[in-house]
Here is the input.
Amino acid sequence: MVDPGRRPTVKDVARAAGVSASTVSNVLHDHPYVTEEKRQRVTDAIERLGYAPSLVSRQLRAGRSQVLALAVPDITSPYFAHLAHVVIDEARRRSLTLFIDETGGGAAQERTIAEGYLSRGVTGVLFCPVELAPAELERLKSDVPTVLLGEYVPGGSFDHIAINSRRSAVEATEHLLSRGRRRPAFAGMRLDRQAGPAYERLRGVREALRATGVDVDADLVFDVADHSREEGARVARELVRRRSDCDALICAADLLAVGALSALREAGVAVPADIALLGWDDAPEVRYTAPPLTSIAHDMTGLAQQAIDAILARQADPTRPAEHLLVGHRLMVRESTGAG
Amino acid sequence: MVDPGRRPTVKDVARAAGVSASTVSNVLHDHPYVTEEKRQRVTDAIERLGYAPSLVSRQLRAGRSQVLALAVPDITSPYFAHLAHVVIDEARRRSLTLFIDETGGGAAQERTIAEGYLSRGVTGVLFCPVELAPAELERLKSDVPTVLLGEYVPGGSFDHIAINSRRSAVEATEHLLSRGRRRPAFAGMRLDRQAGPAYERLRGVREALRATGVDVDADLVFDVADHSREEGARVARELVRRRSDCDALICAADLLAVGALSALREAGVAVPADIALLGWDDAPEVRYTAPPLTSIAHDMTGLAQQAIDAILARQADPTRPAEHLLVGHRLMVRESTGAG
Here is the structure.
């Protein structure tokens, strides 16, 4: 009998099955030279004792590791923390092991990931690139099933999942127009690259504005270094310094909006009376700012599910065509755009 | 010659060394029946080609996995996201693989972790328990080197690292006293358990207050369900409803303070004029609230380094006495307690 307070070992299984430890090991490793009868006795004993083979054993039995990696720029960003949260949850539900890596948004680290995680035994990667351009991602592409989250690669060969950034921006802008705003500023990163979520959001803003006969003023478009509170504050201070007559600030991420809100308050600019403010991601903190911020929420659970589905489908069939999938979004209207 | 754009395989190594692929595999797995001369040729080829064996191979060669786990209640909490950030960084610096798990603060999930991660091949765990009582943690304790972060186990046998919660609370309270506050409320979780960071912080508040001849009013001590913005808002609404004459609210975590700030604003209570407010963790968002919040910052990098050191030391010597280590903290004074 195995002491209930102790985890059963291979030796316990061998004793219970009446076989040698190396026979148990052979069964665990699916070696062909074990008789069916012994295999059955070992399997029964494993079940009876609740023996849990180690990760290494399971990987060997499966013929490959089922370790997925999630590579995000910075886990301290509320968006990426939320993404990690739902991916951890979804991986656990499917008995996959997940490890989380940070790139720091750096090109070298992103290259390592684009080139594949094989040396670490990872067979599938959920990757959120920010620094590498689509062309370089394509050039570096490895055989490790990799799904890109967020970064748009026109015609690219990666599986890719995101919200419809352009469409969500159309809706956000139409909301601002319905509140009488006519002259929005826009802040986001990598606008010069003409790809990526922020660029798609700017496209959506333009599309909605042009329906009213105007375009976004080029002077009111801010390319930021990252989607941080600091950069949002910098843009807001610049708007105040210029005495810009814009009546709304559309931020491609909530952290930019949080930073902008703080800087506008310090400068005595009222939100939303003087400048309406909104962001993307529906970060938890935006419900608690003064005033609470309007934001576009992503269907994060759907994103995690579809991302893992895409990895597993590509593991099963490496030749399947690249998929570009969309998940839902929802405009959460709050006081910062004059709700109510 | 191996194509520089492709990762070398076992076959490439075999070709370069003039041996069979199975000989390479035998060397990687440290099988004894390889001649020293062949072993040397394979090792040379591995080095020359820059071949990186898979995680599984490396684990087998090392005789055990060097995979550490970080188990936190919820990665979307800024404190735990920051902790994950510094632990990822520190693990990478030491070429350790890290996987991050969430317990959801649930007892069942915490039990799984306390009982050890062996079934997943993890040989060291950095664990932030919130639900399990110290006695149960001791009862479940496994052979997997585990360091507790944050939870205080008096006389416990786990390695344990935290800031000096009691001391930091004395400093925070003395700061409030120096600003003329005399009647603080306190909010934190698991105060009834008489252990854990929040309880230690309450002890520190009491100690500093008693030096002025008074104690904390028992009616102003709030046990909260978790350290969330929602719970902070609830406590603040309760204070307002009671027309409490408290002049400060000391929150055991920044998220409580963020929630309280929002609810006080909605109730027309001015911070800091009516109620001074402070928290712990120095979450990034508290620099951007209106007003910015005073908070106690932890030396997170020191925490990550000491935690991994403790795991490795225990792997090397399982019989070493349990260590209870402290890392530094710093009171970051901002407007919410009347800075300036």
